[in-house]
Structures are given as C-alpha cells and as structure tokens.
Amino acid sequence: MNKNMYTVAVAQINTGNCKEENFKKIENMVKTAVAKGVRLVCFPEMVNIQSAQLSHMERGEAIPGETSDFFANLARKHHVWICGGTILEIVQGEEKVFNTSLLFDGNGTIVAQYRKRHTFDITMEDGRAFRESDTVKVGEKMVLAETEIGKLGFGICYDLRFPEQYREMSKNGMEVLLLPASFTKETGEAHWETLLRARAIENGCYVLASNQCGQKIGYEAFGHSMIVDPWGRVLAQASEQETILYAEIDISYVEQVRTQIPSTVMKE
C-alpha cells in the first residue's frame, strides 16, 4: 500500500436556517464518507447556519463553541480528519466577526484555524451589491498545517481570486489546498472552474473546493464543488445538488509535477 495515497471527500451542502438540522445532515455525510474509507472530509463556507432573520453577530460563535465542539466530537467519534467549512467567529472586544475555517484531526483536536483574508465586496451587473467587509473582519495570516495526510493550506471563497496567497504557501510546502466556499451562481458560472484549475496548476497542488448549493440570502449558490489534481485535471465535480465527491490523493504526485514543471515552485 502506498503510504502517500489516501481517499478524500468533499461535501456539497445546502445549509439552511436550522442549526440542528444542518448538524444532522453533516453527521450523515461524515458517516457515509467514513464508510468508504475516507481520511479527510471537507465542508463549505457558512456550513452551520444561514438565516435572513439573524445578523452575522447573532449567528456568530466563540471558538471553542457549539459548532466547533460538534465537529470535534464528530471527528473523534469517526477517527477522521474534518475541515469544518467556515463559521462566523466572535472574538471578545471585536465589533465584527471573522469568517473562520477549522481543521480537526482524528482525535477531535483543532490543528489549524484560518480566518478569511479577502472580503467579498463586489457589485453585480444587475446592481446587487455584496459588502462582506461591513460585518466581517479580515484575517492577517496565511495558515499551513503539517499533517499525516500532507501539508495542507487554506483559503476561503473570495480568497481564491488572490493567487499570491497560494504562491506563498506553495513556497512553504503546501501540497493540498482546502477551499470552503459559497460562490454565487453568476460568478461561479464565469470563473469557478477556471480559478480552481489555475490555482492547482500554478502551485502544483491538489485543490479540494467545497461549495454551497441552493438559494441563499440574496443569491443562489453555484454548487459544482470540485477536486482537482496538481496537473489541473478535474478528478471529481458536483452538479447543483447536495452530494459528496470522492477522489484518491497521491501526495508523491505533487513532487512529480513540480519536478516536471519547475515554474510551480517559486525560486528566490
């Protein structure tokens, strides 16, 4: 058995306004994935709750808190690594929340915590405006996690459009990029696959992109979650419905691609 190979899962979910129902859905997805021998399960952005009736601060939680405890227990129970999508993180003394992704190991320990560095501030062609910065504070650090299943790097949704972030991480050994997202249908149709494959090719790394699907607050999520290999090949891709994607990852292939095309490893 090749110790560099393992099976991963990307869960595409339509998060609703009931946290308990969302938790049940997440747990069922993890159970299904674990039964297939998966070692890492990834979830999308804003995975615990989405609600038009609650503000970002009202939906926010401290870490540790309800959602992080839920994922920790789930990872521990099933002895599986979990990227818990993102939640809105409340920090004492801050007037805004952070959009935060957590990585849990098979013991339920938080081994990485990444805060989104680029807020979604855009105006659509039809005039609709999104101003994430009104309620979300940006993080300041890139995050890498040295794990038993490779060196993992992190991004969140709109971060995908900033290639320098991933270039820096690949210089520091990133082998797999985890990207929870809630890409809109309009921007997703135009850019989602192109950007994901570009990040994989530029950096010679795997990309595991978990996207929301379904109707959200003021927009429709695109779905089409993907797993892309370091050559830019799409190993698995979802449609617009809730589902779980699976693929086998070979970490040794990262070095093979970077050797074939040295431009994927930035030199000083």
Give the helix/strand layout.
Blueprint: E1 5-12, H1 19-35, E2 40-42, H2 56-59, H3 66-78, E3 81-83, E4 87-89, E5 97-104, E6 110-115, E7 121-123, E8 129-131, E9 136-137, E10 144-147, E11 150-154, H4 163-171, E12 176-181, H5 185-203, E13 206-211, E14 213-215, E15 220-222, E16 226-228, E17 234-237, E18 243-250, H6 251-260
Parallel strand pairs: 1-2, 2-3, 5-9, 11-12, 12-13
Antiparallel strand pairs: 1-18, 3-5, 4-5, 5-6, 7-8, 10-11, 13-16, 14-15, 16-17
Walkthrough of the structure:
- The chain has 268 residues and is of the alpha/beta class.
- It has a single domain, classed as Carbon-nitrogen hydrolase (Nitrilase/N-carbamoyl-D-aminoacid amidohydrolase, 4-Layer Sandwich).
- Helix content is 27%, strand content 30%.
- The chain contains 6 helices and 18 strands.
- Strands 1, 2, 3, 4, 5, 6, 9 and 18 form an 8-stranded mixed sheet that branches. Strands 10-11-12-13-16-17 form a 6-stranded mixed sheet, covered by helices on one side. Strands 7-8 form a two-stranded antiparallel ribbon.
- The chain is globular, with a radius of gyration of 17 Å.
- The relative contact order is 0.16.
Summarize the structure.
The protein is of the alpha/beta class and 268 residues long.
